Amino acid sequence: MSAIAHELEVTSRPLDLVALRSMSFAELDELYRAGRRPNSIADLDGDAIGAMLAWRSPGSGPLAWLLRTWSTSSLFPWQGKTFKSHSEEDGEGINRVTVFGKRRWFPFKTRFEPSFLDGKPTFRLDYSGPANPPFIRSIVDEVREVAPRLWLGPAALLVKGRPRPILYFAVSLQ
Prior knowledge:
Elements: H1 3-10, H2 17-21, H3 25-34, E1 46-55, H4 62-72, E2 78-85, E3 90-98, E4 102-114, E5 121-126, H5 134-137, E6 139-147, E7 150-159, E8 162-172
Antiparallel strand pairs: 1-2, 1-8, 2-3, 3-4, 4-5, 5-6, 6-7, 7-8
């Protein structure tokens, strides 16, 4: 158990989307690295509620405050992800957004792979398919379970073929 997860357990704060929103990028990184990959792709099947948590670069200044405030407001367009397994090892999904009404945009494939952060097993979301615009195809997400039905992960942009983490996000199945 990571120090962050232990601290939350000791203070009786449940580890949920609300608790994750209060953590820094460094704390989320520690918690993610201590998480575990799901047993099966099917563990994430369904409509997961999403939360954008912390950006790598804005730090603690006004931009960081603005991004955090916007991501928790009802105006933030990303609502979460829908996952569907095809087998124990692969599946697909799509993002749920509220832009010009409720939309399902930016499909992705899912599979297990070593993490781009630490090489340990993780659940990878791959947006490289031709249905996505070029910028979206350069996004790579991965998640690990940090509490029952709560997954945390980095979102990265591919820069010269290498993932560069830019933020942490979480998805939760209620």
